[in-house]
Design brief:
By secondary structure, this protein is an alpha/beta fold. 41% of the residues lie in helices and 14% in strands. The protein contains 24 helices and 20 strands. It is an enzyme of class 3 (hydrolase). Its EC number is 3.6.4.13. This is RNA helicase.
């Protein structure tokens, strides 16, 4: 594919008359997602035949239910297989260069077909050409370079020429978790071909790695910092390297690893060294490293979408207006609705502190949330990831260390506590779900000051974002009831008989319906009174209400005018957040729960009515794309000024302090950056 000419990023957004705010995508009839949790068929507990009652009529009914339950997993498996087949473009056996040993190794992972990026990248990588590859998240980029690299080493006989301390292939990844995942794929295929594969990253002992290098390594996977340490100490020799792979190169450069990458590239042979660069996103500024270090690269881009969607089309994107203080409880409820008791959820936050604070939320602790960020010890990070993959941890709260390339099967829901400033991060975060043909949901919370970022993500990434209300009590209860039924199905008959006598007493005392309902509530942890949230703002104690008029409501201000004229001043002053709806004859607002009955009884002007909102209507778009672009650029400038050490005061750079603590100098300005004086 011909390489696109990409200009350097501009420091100031240009006003363009053609840039007009796009209308929000039309909402589905129901704002809340379907309640039934989409658990993997493998996780669904099978009903025990011993639970069947002994009466013939009940037994017949029970058998019918069992037959129906047993059909569901089979149907789900068939649907999943069909989804995978739509991504597959060829069979492994169709590529003659793939050895029998590698084919057998892939078969152990049930891999018999290749996805588009894997099929298109194989021949250029196998022939030793430089390659730049881009594919959407969850489409098999890792195997796209692992498979041809291993087959090339085997076919060319490079392993016979290898020397100690001199790996034949070096693969660099931005995070330890991604490096370990790539290592697992290399180890699977390398072991089948008799190749020694090792993974080096920080937080692990240096000495044993030196021993491995002296013993001889064919394929080395690692993070930039640790690999550069070995190069500078001369414990690793890259002069015989035949292939260098940069996975998620844009992330490594944005994380500040550019100098490390450049130093590693300078240590490679000047000729006869293949370079491969793969990522889900390739910003324009990545072209600098391509032009400098890659020779006539083959560009393979399978991420193009007719609608311009930069994310996986199997992902449903939703956004929820919610204050930061309420996001923990909302996320806990979303986990129950979308993932249930058997699914998985990944929650992304901006900072390590936010990560720890959110994981301490009562609802997330109740479902056993795990934490993953850079300050967690390496052995704990590995244990957490293994627990999440195995399903022992159902909710993982993480920073962006888990956003790149991490492949966890059957993640039902991804939540972002706020829209990221780096729009590319949204693509990678949401891509942790909807992988390998499975469907998934991505939910992004935002506040009023962050709404412009939601619109920019829609505009820049071609994503149809569906604005929905926060999880409601009825949705949570419905999902919990489904989980309770599945847990009851898994109880052994002996345990049922042990509780039978007490159950009869409870039924006689309270009635069968009340007794069973209370038992299911207790089983799913619902002991307290259920509280609703506003569909508009997510605040508890508030109810979203809709004002409908026969006449056009031109602006939100006109909606406020009608409310103040028809309602008493006391009630009007208590209302919040009036927004105009897309149809221009309605507006939605928040009212305190205790005032809702009074408002419904008030006699309004002819042609006007007020009702409680049952679902969130489509709202009028208020964000101008040009203005949002300028605001985003200014926000990024302030961020980089802080990182460079710029303070708020004009004279804040004259202080003499240089440490992490607040130095005292002659400057009068006050800065927030590192090592500034006052």
């Amino acid at each position: 594919m011909a390489k696109d000419k990409i200009a350097k990023p501009k420091l100031k957004a240009k006003a363009s008359p053609t840039l007009k705010p796009k209308a929000s995508p039309k909402l589905a009839p129901k704002a809340s997602p379907k309640l039934a949790p989409k658990a993997s068929p493998k996780l669904a507990p099978k009903p025990s035949p011993k639970l069947a009652p002994k009466t013939p009529a009940s037994a017949k009914k029970r058998k019918s239910q069992e037959d129906e339950d047993q059909k569901k997993p089979k149907k789900a498996k068939k649907q999943e297989a069909t989804s995978n087949e739509t991504l597959a473009v060829c069979k492994v056996a169709d590529i003659k260069e793939i050895s029998e040993a590698s084919a057998k190794a892939l078969l152990t992972k049930s891999i018999t077909t290749l996805f588009e990026i894997q099929q298109k990248a194989f021949q250029p990588c196998f022939k030793g050409q430089d390659v730049v590859g881009r594919a959407k998240t969850g489409c098999g980029k890792t195997l796209a370079f692992v498979l041809p690299v291993v087959e090339r080493i085997r076919a060319k006989g490079f392993a016979k020429q290898s020397r100690k301390k001199a790996p034949l292939c070096v693969t660099i990844a931005p995070t330890r978790e991604l490096a370990k995942q790539i290592f697992n794929d290399f180890e699977l295929l390398g072991a089948a071909g008799g190749l020694a594969v090792k993974c080096f990253y920080g937080g692990t002992p240096f000495g044993p790695q030196c021993d491995d290098l002296r013993a001889g390594i064919h394929i080395l996977v690692g993070t930039p910092g640790r690999l550069l340490d070995h190069v500078r100490r001369q414990t690793a020799d890259l002069s015989a390297c035949k292939t260098l792979v940069l996975d998620e190169a844009d992330e490594m450069l944005s994380m500040g690893f550019q100098e490390d990458i450049e130093a590693i590239l300078d240590a490679l042979p000047t000729s006869d060294c293949q370079k491969l660069l793969f990522s889900a996103t390739l910003p324009k500024w990545v072209n600098a490293i391509v032009e400098k270090h890659l020779s006539s690269p083959v560009w393979i881009d399978v991420a193009q979408d007719p609608d311009g969607n930069k994310t996986n089309s199997l992902i449903t994107h939703q956004c929820v207006s919610c204050p930061p203080s309420a996001r923990g409880d909302c996320i806990g409820d979303l986990c129950k609705i979308h993932a249930g008791a058997y699914g998985k959820t990944m929650v992304f936050v901006s900072t390590k502190r936010d990560c720890d604070e959110l994981a301490a939320n009562e609802k997330l602790q109740a479902i056993g949330a795990g934490v993953l960020h850079g300050d967690i010890p390496q052995h704990t990070r590995e244990k957490t990831m293994d627990g999440f993959r195995a399903g022992r941890i159902r909710c993982l709260v993480a920073t962006d260390v888990a956003a790149r390339g991490i492949d966890v099967p059957a993640v039902d829901l991804v939540v972002q506590t706020r829209p990221p400033q780096d729009l590319e991060s949204y693509v990678h975060r949401s891509g942790r779900t909807g992988r390998a043909g499975r469907k998934g949901t991505s939910v992004c919370f935002y506040s009023r000051s962050e709404e412009y970022l939601i619109r920019l993500i829609e505009h820049k990434k071609g994503i149809k974002m569906q604005r929905v209300g926060p999880p409601q009590a009825r949705d949570v209860v419905g999902a919990a009831a489904d989980d309770a039924v599945r847990q009851i199905d898994n109880v052994h008959q002996a345990s049922v008989e042990a509780f039978a006598e007490k159950a009869r007493e409870l039924i006689e005392e309270r009635g069968a319906e009340v007794a069973l309902a209370a038992t299911m509530a207790a089983l799913t942890g619902h002991f307290r009174e259920l509280k609703g949230r506003s569909l508009l703002s997510s605040y508890e104690g508030q109810t979203a209400m809709i004002l409908k008029s026969e006449r056009l409501i031109e602006t939100a201000s006109k909606g406020w005018y009608l409310l103040r004229q028809m309602l008493s001043q006391e009630i009007a002053d208590a209302l919040r957040g009036c927004k105009r709806c897309k149809d221009e004859y309605q507006c939605i607002f928040d009212a305190p729960d205790e005032l809702v009955p009074k408002i419904l009884k008030i006699e309004l002007w002819k042609g006007n009515s007020i009702a409680v909102a049952k679902e969130l209507p489509e709202l009028e778009e208020e964000t101008d794309i040009q203005e949002a672009t300028q605001k985003h650029w200014e926000s990024k400038q302030r961020f980089w000024e802080k990182r460079k050490g710029g303070g708020k005061g004009d004279k804040g750079d004259k202080g003499k302090g240089r440490g992490k603590g607040p130095g005292r100098g002659k400057g009068e300005g006050r800065g927030k950056g590192r090592g500034r004086g006052w």
